[in-house]
Design a protein that fits this description.
The chain has about 475 residues and is an alpha/beta fold. It has helices spanning about 5-25, 30-35, 50-70, 80-105, 110-135, 150-160, 170-180, 215-220, 235-250, 285-305, 305-320, 365-375, 380-385, 400-410, 425-430, 435-450, 455-475; strands at about 145, 165-170, 195-200, 200-205, 210, 225-230, 250-255, 275, 325-330, 335-345, 390-395, 420-425.
Length: about 475
């Protein structure tokens, strides 16, 4: 399925057809009789319409649902989870509108039993329809090059087996490149490529679409499928910012094989012109399991530990009258930042980004030393997990000020940024901390390579056992 009007027609037609089939199924006598056997649904009258009344019901329902799904008709890049979430929201909007119409006008009323029966059907089939429409093999691949290295951009434009729409690069870099060679600000020239004459200038015809700040706008406006990264230094902020934009919009990313070791890839072929970047290492099933476990774990922990939370807060306040919680900015996926909260275990004065062992840290309070030994200072981070900023398992989120020091100590440190940070991880259960960044990075990258929901459960079980042992040894 191509983009443009063909996609729009298929979207609208598919929604109308699926809604019509759902209404017909919900009005089937056998289905309604089976639904009436359910105690709650048995109270609703069984009155499937016939003739003109049935036609009006199907037409009204299809029109209302199709109208509610207008935001999904425009072809634009979206992640699968975003498509499903938006389709569910629009389904509930349509059902509410149908219920409201029936409340005020009996002539166009959709029977309550029919409305109840079609809702789960629409929640299932309509998201599946839009996901199917946006499947990769049904789309005409549309790619752009994003970077700050004119040489790479030219090389990719010359050799990439992709339909390139254009490229994005910083204005300063492009102006310098253009001024050196006498070119204009619209096109890049590559030696040895097939050239076309345009106003006295030779070019390959690859248009500059703007600066890096326009990336998200271009992804949406041009319905881009693939972004090819062409940065001189792949670990710079713009590089991960581009990856973050690809992640948010469900766009595939590729890099030159020379930079494959700076990102997550599947055993790149050294002879390939471009290699795929694993922007979402988790597949959809494991992601749903992981997020469900995160919500259940954090909610259960916050409820069960409520008395402990109150006791810890009172102890901290009683010791030095200082604040109970400590707030710090941590690094998340693709270099984004988010605030985490911990029970304060140190005096606020003299904070330093340099990692230091607890035995050598004279800022730790008496209550704080107990909290750190028993890991109870981490309890407030359950709220960050519930919000979705963190996961239960993942590379430990690092203070943003400390991150710069650790990057200098360990190469490829930023590979940790491809996974949501966690409350615990493989490094924590093996007692590798930021004091030894190379060991910590080794364990974190091992987790990134081997991650799965079953692997997460094993790490959580080991961490809970470790916490229980630390609590017992501290108290006794």
């Amino acid at each position: 399925m191509d983009t443009g009007w063909r996609y729009r027609l298929a979207s609208v037609g598919g929604v109308a057809a699926l809604v019509g089939l759902a209404v017909m199924l919900a009005n089937n006598g056998t289905v309604q009789a089976a639904a009436s056997a359910v105690p709650v649904l048995g109270r609703l009258p069984v009155d499937p319409p016939a003739g003109a009344e049935f036609v009006i019901e199907v037409a009204l329902t299809a029109a209302v649902v199709a109208g509610a799904f207008v935001p999904l008709y425009k072809p634009r890049p979206r992640r699968i989870l975003d498509i499903v979430a938006l389709a569910h929201k629009r389904t509930f909007v349509a059902v509410f509108a149908l219920a409201t119409i029936g409340y005020f006008d009996y002539t166009y009323k959709v029977p309550r039993l029919t409305l109840v029966l079609i809702t789960p059907l629409l929640l299932l089939v309509l998201p599946a329809w839009f996901v199917w429409l946006r499947r990769p093999e049904a789309r005409s691949e549309r790619a752009i090059v994003v970077g700050d290295d004119p040489t790479q951009i030219a090389t990719i434009a010359r050799g990439a087996d992709l339909p390139l729409l254009g490229y994005l690069c910083p204005t300063v870099v492009h102006s310098l490149r253009g001024s050196e060679s006498g070119r204009d600000d619209r096109e890049i020239e590559t030696p040895g490529a097939a050239h076309a004459v345009d106003g006295g200038r030779q070019s390959i015809g690859l248009s500059r679409l703007g600066g890096l700040s326009r990336l998200e706008d271009i992804l949406v406006e041009r319905d881009v499928d693939t972004v090819v990264l062409a940065f001189d230094e792949p670990d710079r902020a713009e590089f991960f910012g581009a990856l973050d934009a690809c992640y948010e919009h469900g766009v595939a990313a590729k890099v030159h094989p020379a930079h494959a070791d700076t990102v997550l890839t599947d055993a790149p072929d050294p002879n390939a012109a471009l290699v795929d970047v694993e922007i979402e290492p988790w597949d959809i099933q494991d992601y749903l399991f992981k997020r469900g476990f995160d919500i259940a774990f954090s909610l259960t922990g916050l409820l069960m530990l409520a008395p402990v939370i109150a006791a810890i807060a009172a102890a901290i306040k009683f010791e030095d009258r200082g604040p109970v919680l400590y707030r710090q900015e941590r690094t998340a996926v693709f270099g984004e930042t988010f605030p985490i909260f911990k029970f304060r275990s140190m005096t606020p004065e003299g904070e330093s980004a340099t990692p230091i062992d607890d035995e050598e840290n004279d800022r730790i309070t008496r209550v704080g030393r107990i909290l750190r030994k028993t890991h109870l200072d981490e309890i407030p981070q359950l709220w960050s997990i519930l919000r979705g900023d963190m996961s239960v398992v993942g590379p430990r989120a690092v203070w943003t000020e400390e991150e710069h020091l650790l990057e200098d100590e360990a190469e490829t440190w930023r590979k940790r940024w491809f996974v949501k940070p966690g409350l615990t991880g493989l490094a924590q259960i093996n007692e590798a901390s930021s004091v030894d960044p190379r060991a910590k990075l080794r364990y974190d990258l091992q987790y990134v390579r081997e991650q799965s929901f079953a692997y997460d459960l094993k790490i959580v079980a080991r961490q809970l056992w470790k916490v229980a042992a630390d609590v017992v040894s501290t108290l006794w």
